[in-house]
Amino acid sequence: MTVKTLFDVAPTLIPVIGEDSAFPVRRIYCIGRNYAAHAREMGGDPSREPPFFFQKPRDSIQVVRPGAVVDHPMPPLTKNYHHEVELVVALGSGGRDIAPADALGHVFGYAVGLDMTRRDLQNAMREAKRPWDVGKGFDNAAPVGPIQPVAQVGHPARGAISAAVNGTVRQNADLADMIWSVAEQIANLSQAFELKAGDLIFSGTPDNVGAVGRGDVLTAHVDGLPDLTIRIV
């Protein structure tokens, strides 16, 4: 029996550098407080406690192509809108209980991303012991650049990661400063979820996250990957 769908829902697709095909997004996982200095500025303990994760809806992605300055709508309800630059990991395969030694074999490629955050709403939800969705999972909350396949970029374990607002660098760190490596994040996530091709992992942000407003131009950078630039409108 053929079943008709009620609505046409467009898939979320991210361009892949050097290929005509696109990467179809299945889920978006984000790790919290994965750089020690950022953990401190958020009031946390930077020691290697078990990592924690949250999710964003896949249609919260805003694709930003290389060289473009994309208009990024200021979301409603917030008076404290923050940038968080992150290395994004795109999985080409998955599984359960993946060993750290095998984890990188499931990575298809990498991209630059921004975990945009309505910080005032996130903080209010955290204080009320409620979920963060309203602060993290809104429309366009996940700007992301094109994916660079592993065959082209390898597995970045060190190199600059930064965010600049109107040409002034705010966040500036090294990928080597991660508390939990990409392989460890994949292994840990696979204990709680069956990971699959199409999953993205936002691997954490350095310190000096801060507010942006209308008219600000925000550029996110990770060594070896195309920059991502948005204008808050």
TrEMBL record:
It holds the Pfam family FAA_hydrolase. GO terms for molecular function: acetylpyruvate hydrolase activity; metal ion binding. It comes from Blastochloris viridis. InterPro entries: Fumarylacetoacetase-like_C, Fumarylacetoacetase_C_sf. Keywords: Hydrolase, Metal-binding. The keyword Transferase does not apply. This is Fumarylacetoacetate hydrolase family protein. It comes from the Bacteria. Residues 28-232 form the Fumarylacetoacetase-like C-terminal domain. Coiled coil: none annotated. The keyword Hydrolase applies.
